[in-house]
Amino acid sequence: MKSVGLVDAHAYSLIKAREVKLFGGKTERILLIRNPWGKKEWNGDWSDNSKQWTSSLKKQVPEYVNKDDGCFWINFKDYDAFFYITTICYYDESYVD
């Protein structure tokens, strides 16, 4: 975990999911993840400094920012390999006054 910039046994937030079109017509599913500490980010494929971020792909993902802010993109395959538990919270607006 440390070698790829992640903290083991630590909670992260899943902010957004995107499917981007790659050169040659293939697609890639990527996820925007946030470390609540605001630091320590994934450093593999699709991370802030990754070579995957071409100018064309940056246009497809307007939320892309190269900043040490705890937010990073990761592809679904790597997410599945490194994040072993995912919990989804359901929000029901009918309970809000």
Please outline the helices and strands.
Blueprint: E1 13-21, E2 27-34, H1 55-60, E3 71-75, H2 76-82
Antiparallel strand pairs: 1-2, 2-3
Key terms for this structure?
13% helix; Cathepsin B, Chain A; globular; 23% strand; 2 helices; 97 residues
Explained architecture:
14% of the residues are buried. The radius of gyration is 15 Å and the shape is globular. It has a single domain (2-95), classed as Cysteine proteinases (Cathepsin B, Chain A, Alpha-Beta Complex). The protein has helices at residues 55-60, 76-82, and strands at residues 13-21, 27-34, 71-75. With 97 residues, it is of the alpha+beta class. A 3-stranded antiparallel sheet has the order 1-2-3. The mean pLDDT is 93. The protein has 2 helices and 3 strands, in the order ββαβα.
CATH superfamily: Cysteine proteinases
Q: Which regions are unreliable across 5 or more consecutive residues at pLDDT < 50?
A: none
Number of structural domains: 1
Q: Predict the CATH topology.
A: Cathepsin B, Chain A
Strand order of the largest sheet: 1-2-3
Give a quick summary of the entry.
The chain has two helices and three strands; from the N terminus they run E-E-H-E-H. It is α+β, with helices and mostly antiparallel strands.
